[in-house]
Design brief:
five-stranded mixed β-barrel, globular, binds S-adenosylmethionine, 3 domains
Length: about 375
């Protein structure tokens, strides 16, 4: 199939990335920002392994679930996926995707925690820039194009304002580091101040959850499950200890590659390096600690050898928090000695296809 060729489409369903799936013609085509039942014309942008990726060009049949997006950049920006439909429809789609992805696991009934707001929530937003072409904005992974988004609505008001200021009179060109013509900037709001961080992996002291109020709801879910009994806890991919700081634990060990906190219950270690399990296990023995509760919150890549960690450490209960349900399911399917006792979908990233999953496990 030639690229940039117009093709007809008819959307049958949405996939887990929020894209419409069309089975019309020679191959399956994925078309963002469409809805089931919609028909029209799309332009093919790329092809891979017998499937095509296209952008919508025009609609001849429009879904009754379609609404006018609140964001002026929605049609061209790759970052939000659902602003062309209602929040109810977005959440229902996410729940359907969750159930579909987790269908091989014997999950109890899933609890859905809706977002408290659909826009104006991110305390940090990352933009890509290229001084040679004088562009800053969201990077479209399909085309590698930088998309201008001066009126972006996803950030908290302070972040949105800072984004507008960057665009005003091309202010960002004066601020971007001269020795790095292409890169990224993180605009973040923390402790009542908005700051810019150019080309570093983490702004201001390590990872922080992007949506404050949803983070508080995640704490609540974990606290309810943890209970008031003073259990000992191992917090893997702990960041600043966000998930365990307020739990009534008896003892704790937090492990993360990024060692922001210097307290004695924080240990800096790459959990993806060979020998990481041995290192953590040796440290636990040295501290005379055998954690009854394991809480883990890895990056999108998950923890492929979770089963080995559970076999070695033998916690009675586990809470696995994940921003990528695909790797979460992959890791849990290998675990046979634990059964799921709870499943929560927290809508941490409204307007996008992303969500946070929380699965509780108990040793059989
Ligand atoms: C999704 S964040 C969760 C952080 C924390 N639980 C929280 O709620 O704020 C994932 C964490 O994994 C850490 N991380 C990334 N790669 C790692 C590695 N190779 N070894 C250990 N930690 C890693 C990051 O520094 C980050 O703090």
């Amino acid at each position: 199939m030639r690229q940039n060729r117009p093709i007809p489409f008819k959307i049958s369903t949405l996939d887990s990335l929020g894209q419409g799936v069309s089975k019309l013609g020679e191959r399956i085509t994925f078309i963002p920002k469409t809805l089931p039942g919609e028909e029209g014309e799309a332009i093919v942008q790329a092809e891979k392994k017998g499937v095509a990726f296209a952008r919508m060009n025009s609609l001849s049949v429009s879904s009754s679930d379609r609404v006018k997006p609140v964001c002026p950049h929605f049609d061209v920006c790759p970052s939000c996926h659902y602003l062309h439909t209602s929040y109810e429809k977005e959440l229902a789609t996410k729940k359907e995707n969750f159930l579909n992805l987790f269908r091989k696991l014997p999950l109890p009934e899933i609890k859905v925690v809706p977002a408290v707001r659909r826009t104006g929530y991110r305390n940090r937003v990352q933009l890509h820039y290229d001084t040679k072409i004088r562009k800053i904005g969201m990077l479209d992974a399909r085309t590698q194009e930088i998309i201008n988004i001066p009126q972006c609505l996803i950030g908290v008001p302070e972040v949105s304002k800072a984004i507008q200021n960057l665009y005003a009179d091309e202010q960002w060109l004066k601020l971007a580091p001269k020795n790095t013509p292409r890169g990224h900037v993180e605009i973040y709001y923390k402790d009542q101040a908005t700051e810019l961080s150019w080309n570093s992996s983490y702004a201001q002291g390590g990872f922080t959850q992007v949506f404050g109020e949803m983070n508080a709801l995640l704490h609540q879910e974990i606290a309810n499950w943890f209970g008031n009994e003073k259990s000992s806890v191992l917090d893997l991919f702990a960041g600043n200890g966000n998930l365990t700081n307020n739990l009534p634990y008896s003892e704790r060990l937090c492990v993360d590659i990024y060692n922001a906190a210097k307290e004695s219950d924080f240990y800096s270690c790459s959990l993806y390096e060979p020998g990481a399990l041995e290192k953590v296990s040796t440290l636990l023995k040295k501290k005379n600690l055998s954690p009854q509760v394991l809480i883990l919150d890895p990056p999108r890549s998950g923890l492929t050898d979770l089963k080995e960690w559970l076999t070695e450490l033998n916690p009675a209960r586990v809470a696995y928090v994940s921003c990528d349900p695909h790797t979460l399911v992959r890791d849990l399917l290998k675990v046979t000695d634990y059964r799921p006792t709870g499943a929560v979908l927290l809508d941490f990233f409204p307007s996008t296809f992303h969500f946070e999953s929380l699965i509780f496990l108990e040793r059989k």
